[in-house]
C-alpha cells in the first residue's frame, strides 16, 4: 500500500515521504496512530505542505545537531515519579515525561518522538536514553528516576 508519512517513523522515513508498506502495517498501525495517510492524487498536494512544516521544526545541519547534543549531554535530568516499596513504578516513564523533564531541567526543547527508550523504564535508578537529533547524530542522556 502506498502511503504518505505525516510524522517521522524510524526505519521507514521522514514526514512528507511517500513509501510503500504492507497493507496490514499501514491499516493497523500507521494510519490509526496518525503517522501516515493514504496516498491519493489529491493527497500528493499535501506532501509539499508536510515537507515545509518539517523543515521549520527540523534541525537542518549536523553542526546544529552537535550543538544541541552538547547542550543535552550537559543537562542533569531528574524525574520524580510515584513508586511502590520495592522501587517499582506505578506505570512507566514515557518519552513525553522525559521530554518535559529535559525542558524543566533547563535543556533544549525536544520532541517526544525523538526520545528513544531501549526498554520501558519501570524501576527507580539511573537509566540511559537516546535522543535522535539528526539522522547521523544521537545524544546519550542519563535520566535519574527518583521516588516522588
From TrEMBL:
<comment type="function">
    <text>Binds to the 23S rRNA.</text>
</comment>
<dbReference type="GO" id="GO:0006412">
    <property type="term" value="P:translation"/>
</dbReference>
<dbReference type="GO" id="GO:1990904">
    <property type="term" value="C:ribonucleoprotein complex"/>
</dbReference>
<dbReference type="InterPro" id="IPR020069">
    <property type="entry name" value="Ribosomal_bL9_C"/>
</dbReference>
<dbReference type="GO" id="GO:0005840">
    <property type="term" value="C:ribosome"/>
</dbReference>
<dbReference type="InterPro" id="IPR020594">
    <property type="entry name" value="Ribosomal_bL9_bac/chp"/>
</dbReference>
<dbReference type="Pfam" id="PF03948">
    <property type="entry name" value="Ribosomal_L9_C"/>
</dbReference>
<keyword id="KW-0694">RNA-binding</keyword>
<protein>
    <recommendedName>
        <fullName>Large ribosomal subunit protein bL9</fullName>
    </recommendedName>
</protein>
<comment type="similarity">
    <text>Belongs to the bacterial ribosomal protein bL9 family.</text>
</comment>
<dbReference type="InterPro" id="IPR036935">
    <property type="entry name" value="Ribosomal_bL9_N_sf"/>
</dbReference>
<keyword id="KW-0699">rRNA-binding</keyword>
<dbReference type="GO" id="GO:0019843">
    <property type="term" value="F:rRNA binding"/>
</dbReference>
<keyword id="KW-0687">Ribonucleoprotein</keyword>
<dbReference type="Pfam" id="PF01281">
    <property type="entry name" value="Ribosomal_L9_N"/>
</dbReference>
<dbReference type="InterPro" id="IPR009027">
    <property type="entry name" value="Ribosomal_bL9/RNase_H1_N"/>
</dbReference>
<dbReference type="InterPro" id="IPR036791">
    <property type="entry name" value="Ribosomal_bL9_C_sf"/>
</dbReference>
<keyword id="KW-0689">Ribosomal protein</keyword>
<dbReference type="GO" id="GO:0003735">
    <property type="term" value="F:structural constituent of ribosome"/>
</dbReference>
<dbReference type="InterPro" id="IPR020070">
    <property type="entry name" value="Ribosomal_bL9_N"/>
</dbReference>
<feature type="domain" description="Ribosomal protein L9">
    <location>
        <begin position="13"/>
        <end position="40"/>
    </location>
</feature>
<dbReference type="InterPro" id="IPR000244">
    <property type="entry name" value="Ribosomal_bL9"/>
</dbReference>
Amino acid at each position: 500500500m502506498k502511503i504518505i508519512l505525516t510524522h517521522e517513523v524510524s526505519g521507514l522515513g521522514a514526514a512528507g515521504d511517500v513509501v510503500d508498506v504492507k497493507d496490514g502495517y499501514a491499516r493497523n498501525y500507521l494510519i490509526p496512530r496518525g503517522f501516515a495517510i493514504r496516498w491519493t492524487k489529491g493527497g500528493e498536494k499535501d506532501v509539499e505542505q508536510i515537507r515545509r512544516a518539517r523543515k521549520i521544526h527540523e534541525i537542518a545541519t549536523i553542526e546544529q545537531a552537535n550543538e544541541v547534543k552538547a547542550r543535552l549531554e550537559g543537562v542533569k535530568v531528574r524525574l520524580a515519579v510515584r513508586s511502590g516499596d520495592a522501587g517499582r513504578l506505578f506505570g512507566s516513564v514515557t518519552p513525553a515525561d522525559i521530554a518535559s523533564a529535559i525542558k524543566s531541567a533547563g535543556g533544549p526543547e525536544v520532541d517526544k518522538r525523538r526520545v528513544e527508550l531501549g526498554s520501558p523504564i519501570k524501576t527507580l535508578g539511573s537509566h540511559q536514553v537516546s535522543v535522535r537529533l539528526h539522522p547521523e547524530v544521537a545524544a546519550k542522556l542519563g535520566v535519574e528516576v527518583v521516588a516522588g
